[in-house]
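Subject: Sanity check before I submit

Could someone independently write out the structure tokens for this chain? I want to compare against mine line by line before I put it in a report. The sequence has 155 residues.
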Amino acid sequence: MTSAQSSTVSEETHRAAEAAIKRYSYKTPTAFERKKTSVLLGKGEYVRGMIQVVKEGGENNLHYHANVDGFWMVLKGRAKFYGPGDALLGEFGPQEGLVIPRFARYWFESTGDEQLEILLVQAFSQPNAPNSGRTDSAPRKLADAGASPHLSAEV
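---
Independent answer below. Compare away.
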């Protein structure tokens, strides 16, 4: 948006956007039964941020997302990401990761000695999309893999 365009945005639009600012406070979940859980940090019209916490054996299956690009960054632990045919896309430790475009097939697993905490920021192709368009390319390894986040860090 150019400076000329920004002057055409109404005060009402600015105020509505500013009223939609959300805060969050993340704490690592300590008691969950599943091998993997997600904590929703917040979401906007085109973006959603969450942290997935993965215990040993919490790997997922080859899949893709039709509605989002995904930005992944390891916070704690280690993760390996794979593409079709189990081709290694990379192994990542804290403050490392990758960007996965929509329709790119991948899966990942926790590979370190400590529990994996990995940040996922999803950029949606449509405003207020109801989901990421996750589509399995191989059978699921966990019955609840890909389930919606069930914990929230929004305050």
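---
OP: Matches mine. For the report I'm noting this point. The CA atoms of residues 79 and 110 lie 5 Å apart.
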